[in-house]
Design brief:
Blueprint (H helix, E strand, L loop, with lengths): L9 H4 L1 H8 L14 E6 L6 H14 L4 E5 L6 H9 L6 E5 L7 H11 L4 E6 L2 H9 L11 E3 L5 H11 L6 H11 L3 H7 L7 H17 L4 H14 L6 H6 L6 H13 L3 E8 L4 E3 L5 E4 L2 H11 L7 H15 L5 E6 L2 E7 L3 E5 L10 H5 L4 E5 L9
Parallel strand pairs: 1-4, 1-5, 2-3, 3-4, 6-9, 11-12
Antiparallel strand pairs: 6-7, 6-8, 9-10, 10-11
Helix pairs in contact: 4-5, 10-14, 11-14
């Protein structure tokens, strides 16, 4: 077992921290006060969770707190994890990376916190449902200071700020938004793109392996996932039923489609947008839904995995997808609205309506949008994207 953090100047040899030091920019991670109990760091693969974990480890070691770090990818089940924790009785703070690889991991953590309530556990994972479900099975064991942390790909504003921090050439806003459409918000993709904003081919390959690898790990069919990703890229921004999506793929059944969509959602790769009725102030969960990838790079991965031709209107698709993710992160009651007079892209309850028009000027607004009674109605187009003042 490698106790690398006990070596002098271990940070210089650590691949995560040395890569962070060499990176042209560093994201501003929020400060974390660790306390007894369980703290979760959730987010997709390759977004920087392991680096964040190493930074927290570095701080604890600096303070002289007995700590232990382990990457859980080679552990099979909760018994292996329990034995590992038991072998480190003198440690106070445990940093366990990718704990969702361990079957029923929460059983080992529950046992450890019951045995010693002063222990600190910081866990990362790339499966949203598994992490939250595991913690729900351990009521009362959340850390009081920082129970749950979320690390997601950068949105456009943060992405632009990282370019500024790196000292790279500043491009006109519209060109920069188009660059973001090609590169996406994962830090490694932007680092690979560099000041010339090259296509991040290595990053795309990594994310392809991530999605397909998770599919295989969950004992699902790679072919089905590829087929579904292709259709999601094709219909992104359009409402569709699960039955309709099944008919467009080889997945055949409503339940199979739902299962594979769930895998993507739990891996932070996909968002579902539900129909919203502003008159009744309710969501219609059984009506047709809209689906959006959470980051542009997943859109490009979907096309490369399926060999599908990128549509001519892909910028309009990506603009709506980028807007959807921006809104999802700010508002809980986000949906879309549709009636006989047309559709409204996004509604935030009864308070805000946002329509996306990827053109220099606004035209072809639906009657549904024009007739909608809402105190804040916005149209985001090429010259006013993210106009939220």
């Amino acid at each position: 077992m490698d106790f690398f953090w006990k070596n002098p100047n271990w940070e210089k040899d650590d691949r995560h921290l040395s890569a962070l030091e060499a990176a042209p920019f560093q994201r501003g991670l929020p400060p974390v006060v660790l306390s007894p109990g369980v703290t979760l760091i959730r987010g997709p693969r390759q977004v920087g969770k392991s680096t964040w974990l190493k930074l927290l480890l570095k701080e604890q070691v600096k303070q002289g707190i007995p700590s232990f770090y382990y990457t859980c990818e080679d552990l099979n089940d909760h018994k292996d994890l329990a034995a590992l924790i038991q072998s480190q009785k003198n440690s106070i703070c445990f940093f366990l990376d990718e704990v969702t690889f361990v079957d029923e991991w929460w059983r080992a953590i529950k046992k450890a916190t019951d045995t010693d309530s002063k222990k600190i556990f910081v866990l990362t994972g790339s499966n949203s449902y598994d992490l939250r479900h595991g913690l729900d099975l351990m009521p009362g064991r959340w850390a009081s200071q920082a129970g749950e942390l979320l690390l997601l790909p950068m949105l456009f504003e943060e992405w632009s700020d990282m370019i500024h921090r790196a000292g790279w050439p500043k491009r006109p806003p519209l060109q920069q938004l188009r660059d973001f459409m090609r590169i996406g918000g994962f830090p490694s993709a932007l680092i690979e793109a560099g000041p010339d904003m090259k296509n991040p081919e290595n990053a795309k390959q990594n994310y392809s392996r991530w999605i397909i690898g998770d599919t295989i790990k969950l004992k699902r069919q790679e072919l089905f996932m590829r087929e579904l990703l292709g259709q999601l890229a094709k219909i992104m921004g359009n409402s569709v039923s699960l039955h309709g999506l099944a008919q467009k793929t080889q997945l055949m059944s409503y339940h199979t489609v739902q299962d594979y969509l769930s895998i993507l959602e739990q891996a932070f790769a996909l968002r579902s947008l539900y129909a919203y009725d502003p008159e009744k102030d309710v969501f219609h969960f059984k009506k047709e839904k809209k689906f959006y990838f959470s980051d542009p790079i997943i859109y490009w991965v979907a096309h490369e995995l399926t060999g599908m031709k990128v549509p001519e209107d892909h910028e309009a698709q990506l603009a709506e997808m980028i807007a959807a993710e921006w809104l999802f992160r700010r508002y809980k009651r986000l949906g879309y609205y549709s009636n006989k007079n047309g559709e409204v892209d996004f509604l935030v309850g009864r308070e805000k309506a946002v329509e996306i028009k990827w053109s220099p000027i606004v035209n072809n607004l639906s009657k549904a949008f024009k007739q909608l009674t809402c105190p804040d109605k916005r149209v985001w187009h090429q010259e006013s994207f993210f106009d939220i003042t």
